Amino acid sequence: MKSKLNIAVFLTLLFVLLVLIVIVPPDERSVIDENRNLTKMPSLNSETIFNGRFSAQFDSFVADSVGFRSYLISASNLINKWQGLTLSDDAKIVIRDVVTDAPDVINLLPIPTVTPSITDMPVTETATEAPQPEVSNTPTPETQTDEPTSEPTETATVSPEPTKTADTDLSPIKAGPVLKFKDKIVEIYGFNKTSVLNYVNIVNSYRESLGRNVRIFSAPMPTHIEFLDEKYRSASDSQRKAMDFIKDRLSPDVHFVDAYDLLKEHSDEYLFFRTDHHWTATGAYYGYVAFAEEAGFEPLSLTEDYNEDRLENFLGYLYSVTPDEYLKQHPDYITYYTLKEPIETSNKLLFVPKDKSYATYSIFMGGDWDYYKVTTSVKNGKTVIILKDSYANAFIPFLAPHYENIVVIDPRKYTGSVFNEVAKYQDVDLVFFDYIFVPGRNDFVQDLINIR
After folding, report:
1. Separation in Å, CA 327 to CA 19, 355, 358
2. Taking the complete model, does pTM exceed 0.85, yes or no?
3. 140 in Cβ contact with 63 (< 8 Å)
4. Which of 78, 6, 66 is nearest to 39 (CA)?
5. φ and ψ at 307, to 5 degrees?
6. Three-state SS for 81?
7. Of 452, 438, 3, nearest in space to 196 by CA
8. What are the mean pLDDT values of the chain's consecutive 10-residue runs (452 residues total)?
């Protein structure tokens, strides 16, 4: 009798699950709350099977297909209030172990030391450079077929839509620990010496191969947790020490952009989102000021040269993987800045939605692109090429008054050659711009190797 009862209970639960997934339509309210789109059924082919993408995305697809998902999440949130390691009366460490299709979240779990594919880059305290191919002085054929060719005709906020589609199909990855407060969620930083040395090696190898007519910049930016009270920073490795570690091992010919002190000086301002791992446009402005100082040009004034506007009701990635009712009722907002005297551009740098009551971080640069070029009306012959993660997206619009060409490359999806791209221009600044977690990722370092 007991075994029959167990079977009956199991079949009942299986039937309920079948109804929730197959019969009841997906609960779109849940993904609106999480500020993202429903996960689509992934393509089934040999490539997606063997690289693991199908199984990971299928899990997300099934999760998003559950009916009444928002109510199940709310019930889960009631239970989650008691999870995590309490650090103080108002903060606790929460270990997240969820799969997500968020385009730019760093794996905070332990990272393998050195993968076989980067054994050509010795890991040493002196950051020995691997030999690199020389750059040809003759421009090579375009690796991207849809680069804008016309002269600038529109302002940054009304220029024609680009012909490419934004990159939103990056491999799912696992999220790591966060420090959760009542009014914010912040990522916990973990320093990985071997991976960071690999990052230093590849930056130095670009320096060695590209010649002295190209200026190289390394700009690892600190994150929210670094500017909290000391008792909370103790849960994280020091980003200040990590930045100094990188700076001390870079080639003397590599410019190091250090925005730490400037961000700390303005830490009472709205520099970082409370529900997202990115910084705000205000935080990015101080990153721009630090870059301008290192690059040797005068930054524009945020108060005198820009108009300020905002989009309401922003709930970011950290909220989506650690939902919280209080944060849902007290969302972030996105501040953005436009020049009082607009610069003409061939493609947009800001994608301001018509409905300003709904905000996403993709307002900056339209999200992550594998390759994106903007030609401005600033006829000074200068080009900046940015190898970046999405932390740079809010920073890039500030560069329009200073460069004739702005080339944005996301190493995670780009399939061309950075060396070939550099060879097209005469006066080039090549900038490795990312948040401090990225130098600790061997997969991102491998991407930088692949696109040389």
Report:
1. 31, 22, 16
2. no
3. no
4. 66
5. -95, 145
6. coil
7. 438
8. 74 66 58 53 67 60 59 53 51 49 31 29 35 32 32 32 34 59 92 93 94 92 94 90 97 97 97 96 98 98 96 90 88 96 95 82 93 96 96 97 97 92 95 94 90 92
Between CA 148 and CA 144 the distance in angstroms is: 10
* CA distance between the termini of the chain: 68
CA distance 317 to 274: 10
Query: How much of the chain is helix, strand and coil, in % rounded to 5?
Result: 35, 20, 45
- Secondary structure letter of residue 177 according to DSSP: E
* Whole-number Å distance between alpha carbons of 199 and 209: 16
281's tokens: 């446009």
- The pair of three-digit structure tokens given for residue 180, joined into one six-digit string: 């959760």
Provide the edge-to-edge strand list for the sheet that holds 254-256: 254-256, 214-221, 427-435, 382-388, 405-409, 371-375
What distances in angstroms separate CA 282 from CA 313, 318, 390, 398, 448, one per listed residue?
A: 17, 19, 16, 11, 28
**What DSSP line would sit under 357-416, residue for residue?**
TS--GGGBTTSB-SEEEEEBS--S-EEEEEEE-GGGTTTGGGGTTT-SEEEEE-TTT--S
